[in-house]
Design brief:
Strands 1, 2, 3, 4, 5 and 6 form a 6-stranded parallel beta sheet that branches. It is built from 4 helices and 6 strands; from the N terminus they run E-H-E-E-H-E-H-E-E-H. It has one domain: Flavodoxin domain (Rossmann fold). With 158 residues, the protein is an alpha/beta fold. Helix 1 packs across helix 4 and helix 2 runs parallel beside helix 3. The structure holds flavin mononucleotide (FMN). Flavin mononucleotide binds next to helix 1 and strand 4.
């Protein structure tokens, strides 16, 4: 059964809405061992090395991923570079929400993943948070489902 980790941060719950849609997309896999790792909760960093796919989500905070997420990914990078953690062939995908700039933070996250050899299998997704009742446009929720489906497809096809 493929292992998938969703590593995400959220300050006010918007990214969590996107996580739910990504999970729906992953549901196209018959079986999946899914771990939801929210930044700030306790988990072992080696969980990030012991997976077939990692999907990372973050809000834009001052034009970047959240500082806590950056810390986790930089720590992972250091452990991989010093060969304390060995990554296998891990597939990756990145999504995030933002309100007023370009959502460039998803590219910063991708750079960190690619740097440690994670193979991206879906285009980065930066979703606009409109606030208020609409918050996330249904079309964008659909895009998050597609991202989950793309990861599922890549796991099926090896
Ligand atoms: C302290 C702070 C800084 C933010 N900085 C940016 C920013 O630089 N660019 C942007 O587009 N949105 C920015 N936002 C808006 C958030 O990215 C947006 O509201 C996001 O959807 C929040 O997601 P969350 O509820 O998962 O934390 C900022 C929000 C906060 C609270």
């Amino acid at each position: 059964m493929p292992k998938v980790v969703i590593l995400y941060d959220t300050l006010s719950g918007t990214t969590e809405l996107l996580v739910k849609a990504v999970i729906e997309g992953l549901g196209t896999l018959e079986e999946v061992d899914l771990q939801l790792l929210k930044i700030g909760t306790k988990f072992s960093i080696s969980t990030l090395a012991n997976t077939d796919a990692i999907i990372v989500g973050s809000p834009s905070i001052y034009g970047d991923m959240t500082p806590q997420l950056r810390t986790v990914l930089t720590n992972l990078q250091n452990l991989v570079m010093s060969q304390k953690l060995v990554l296998g062939d891990i597939k990756g995908a990145v999504f995030g929400s933002y309100e007023w700039d370009g959502g460039w933070h998803v590219e910063r996250i991708e750079e960190l993943l690619v740097d440690i050899g994670i193979r991206l299998v879906a285009p980065p997704l930066a979703i606009v948070d409109h606030g208020g009742r609409l918050k996330i446009h249904p079309r964008d929720i659909e895009q998050c489902r597609d991202l989950g489906q793309n990861v599922a497809f890549s796991l099926r096809s090896g």
